[in-house]
């Protein structure tokens, strides 16, 4: 008598339960706390795989708007606080302080961007809204660079440094380069910010500088020497 074969029963796939609105809000709060730890440089105990999965589930379960708006609010609060710090910085340290904050926040923002990669790809891009990194640049621009007590001072200090260099004084060129590159980068593919915040005034100052140089030269030399 042949042995009776054991019947194999395939259990139906039990899909993950969709997050309710309340559960999604709890999930976002946990994710927000983790992002805060990243900004506080206390991320050594965080699992970036778990954080990515958390953001992934929120978007997958149709809570993309909750996540997107929450991230924007979180970045805004963070950068507003930084803007207030920079605004209180004396002129002598403003460029250096701003450069340091900019470099630091770019690194942190890149980390946050990696966690929210799925949101950027499947929520932000199809809706033609800014990705996490672009959003961060925009908020940094408005809250820090365009702070009422920073914007005009920044332009004045940049022009003053360039004037000093033209007069033969030593200036921190790498620092100036970092600040000018920042003005380009926050434009997110456009030079509008750079042009409005610096280039227009720079070109005007350049024309004035060379006109005065020409007049001074002519006052001490003949027309033949000028030509």
UniProtKB/TrEMBL annotation:
This is Cullin N-terminal domain-containing protein. It holds the Pfam family Cullin. Belongs to the cullin family. GO terms for molecular function: ubiquitin protein ligase binding. InterPro entries: Cullin (IPR045093), Cullin_N (IPR001373), Cullin_repeat-like_dom_sf (IPR016159). It comes from Pinguiococcus pyrenoidosus. PANTHER family: CULLIN (PTHR11932). Transmembrane segments: none annotated. Residues 28-227 form the Cullin N-terminal domain. One of its GO terms (biological process) is ubiquitin-dependent protein catabolic process.
